[in-house]
Every structure is written in structure tokens, then in C-alpha cells.
Amino acid sequence: TYIVTDNCIKCKYMDCVEVCPVDCFYEGENMLVIHPDECIDCGVCEPECPAEAIVPDTEPGLESWLEINTKFAEVWPNITEKRDPPADAEKHDGEKGKFEKYFS
Ligand code: SF4
Ligand code: F3S
Q1: ipTM of the complex in this document
Q2: For the chain, which residues score pLDDT lower than 50?
Q3: Which domains does the chain have, with CATH numbers?
Q4: 17 CB less than 6 Å from ligand 1?
Q5: Is the shortest distance between the CB of 45 and ligand 1 below 6 Å?
Q6: Mind listing the pLDDT tens digit for each residue in 69-97?
Q7: Rounded to whole angstroms, how far apart are CA atoms 51 and 68?
Q8: Of 14, 25, 47, 72, which has the highest C-beta tally within 10 A?
């Protein structure tokens, strides 16, 4: 499966939702997650994310992000259409420690 990681937080560009063939993105206040059981591993979303926040879960050290995607995809609403990203998205692109500061 692919998962959404830290740099999505507060950037939330939403280009990813438009290309997913199975509509498996879910929306929280500050970021999106992928439902790992619904993702068909097509990889189409990965290059679409301007924040490079989408990665395959086979990369090392991503256990906690897989847990977060799994947990919140069950709670947050499905999102299938892109809206305008936050006005200050670029300011937060690449910022360190976003999870601790802003995750909700
Ligand atoms: Fe959707 Fe494919 Fe990305 Fe999985 S890898 S979230 S199926 S676009
Ligand atoms: Fe987040 Fe990238 Fe999608 S910033 S909302 S994963 S396009």
C-alpha cells in the first residue's frame, strides 16, 4: 500500500485525490490519509503530490505512519474532489516536526 506521511500536514495540496482510481483518500483537518486496505498499489498518486508526502509503506521506518493511515481512514470522511489548498501551504512545505505541532 501507499501511505501519506508528515509533509502533507498543513500543506494538504489535494492533487492526490483527483488521480486515485479507487477514491481511497480520507480527510482530516490538516492532512489526508490513504486507506491501506482500499489502496490497490497503483502508484499514480505518488508523483502527483507537490509535497512528496506519499510513499510506499515498504520504505523503512514508516510503521507509525502506516498505523496513522489505517486508524484515521476509518474515522475521517472520504474525499474525492480537490479543493483549494490552505493559503499558507507553501510556508509549511518542508517544515520539521509537523506531526507534533499540528496533527489533528
Ligand atoms: Fe490511490 Fe493508487 Fe495512490 Fe493507492 S497508490 S492511494 S490506489 S492512487
Ligand atoms: Fe497531502 Fe500531497 Fe495529497 S500534500 S493532500 S498527500 S497531494
Answers
A1: 0.98
A2: none
A3: 2-82 (3.30.70.20)
A4: no
A5: yes
A6: 999 999 999 999 999 999 999 999 999 99
A7: 18
A8: 25
